[in-house]
Each structure stands twice: as structure tokens, then as C-alpha cells.
Write a structure and sequence with these properties.
By secondary structure, this protein is an alpha+beta fold. The protein has two domains: about 35 residues, no CATH class; about 140 residues, no CATH class. A four-stranded antiparallel sheet has the order 3-4-5-6. A two-stranded antiparallel ribbon has the order 1-2. Strand 1 and strand 2 form a beta hairpin. Helix 3 packs antiparallel against helix 4. It starts with a strand and ends with a helix.
Length: about 180
């Protein structure tokens, strides 16, 4: 007797007499093949996914986006950096709570920085390759709670980046702040 395992349109035939590990291997292969065909990568760090989503939202031609190399660094946040993070914001209650959690050791914030090289088309269908940094401040030290609008986009080559988007950097930052404020309400 054969069983058919379907994964998003792809199928793998699994025999009941195969060992558990062999069946697991077939299933894993089918899932990887499916993810490769769909252009999705289950192994992308959450910061990469969120940064790309934010970036595609400002590109003139988001469908032309192609990821190049990337690397992620993490830097532990000091108490003074945490205090400064809230400077100039109306989030006094959150500031106090965050400092209390830092002081009692409940949370250890981390600043993540993603450096991403990518290629995309501009309005004239010219392919442009450039780099950008996405920064994410994590209060709990994890990337799992990252959301696109809180990943700050920082072009490393502003002239090249400006050829790919119709929005100004100030406009992008203001839109992200508005989305963040809506998320807190």
C-alpha cells in the first residue's frame, strides 16, 4: 500500500514499510523542494523577512527585487542606550517599564543590524544593485517578534537607493513611525 503526501501541489509517495527516518527524509525533501519552487525560504531569519517586506513596500518595482548577500550582527544594549532609545518620544510609561525590566534582569535588549545587498529595477527598467542596513531594537533580545514597520531602513548608498523608490527617506521614516504608533494603540 502506498500513501500520497501532498505539500502545496507537490507530492511524494511514502511506503508504509519504510523506516521512520527514511519517510522523514522524503517529507523534508518535498518541503524543501516546495519552498525552493515558491521562492520562499523557511530558514530566513525573521529580521531578513521583515526588512525585505519593508523594503519592497517602498520600491518602485517591488516584483524586480532580488536578494544578494546579507549578514546580521547583534549588539547588547546598555542601560543608557535603552534610556536614550525613548528620548524624544511620548512613550514615558514604556520607558519606565523597560528600564525596570532591564534593572531587574527580566529583559536584556539587543540591537540587531542587517546589512543587505540587493538588486531591483528603477522606473526606467534599469537594474540597480545597492546595499542597505535594517536595524531592529529587540527588548527581549530575540528576533522572533520583529515586524516590518519597526525595521529602520538605512540606505548605505543614498544616490543608488533613491533611484529605486518614489518616497523620500523622511517619508519612509514618518510612515513607519505612524504604523508603530498605531500598533501601540
Amino acid at each position: 500500500m502506498l500513501y500520497l503526501l501532498s505539500t502545496a501541489g507537490d507530492a511524494a509517495v511514502v511506503c508504509p514499510h519504510l523506516s521512520y527516518l527514511k519517510r522523514a527524509s522524503i517529507i523534508a525533501s518535498a518541503l524543501l523542494a516546495t519552498s525552493a519552487l515558491s521562492g520562499c525560504n523557511f530558514f530566513d531569519p525573521p529580521l531578513v523577512t521583515a526588512c525585505e517586506e519593508n523594503l519592497k513596500g517602498v520600491l518602485v518595482k517591488p516584483s524586480s527585487y532580488r536578494r544578494g548577500d546579507f549578514n546580521i550582527t547583534s549588539i547588547p544594549v546598555t542601560r543608557s542606550e535603552l534610556d536614550n532609545y525613548f528620548e524624544g518620544t511620548p512613550l514615558k510609561t514604556l520607558r519606565k517599564e523597560a528600564l525596570e525590566r532591564f534593572d531587574d534582569g527580566t529583559e536584556r535588549p539587543v540591537r540587531y543590524m542587517l546589512n543587505l545587498q540587493f538588486t531591483a529595477d528603477n522606473e526606467n527598467a534599469e537594474t540597480v544593485t545597492t546595499k542597505l542596513a535594517c536595524e531592529y531594537f529587540s527588548f527581549d533580545g530575540k528576533q522572533s517578534s520583529v515586524v516590518p514597520f519597526v525595521t529602520g531602513l538605512k540606505p548605505l548608498d543614498i544616490s543608488e537607493f533613491s533611484r529605486l523608490t518614489s518616497k523620500s527617506l523622511k517619508g519612509i521614516a514618518e510612515e513607519n513611525l505612524r504604523k508603530a504608533a498605531e500598533g501601540l494603540q
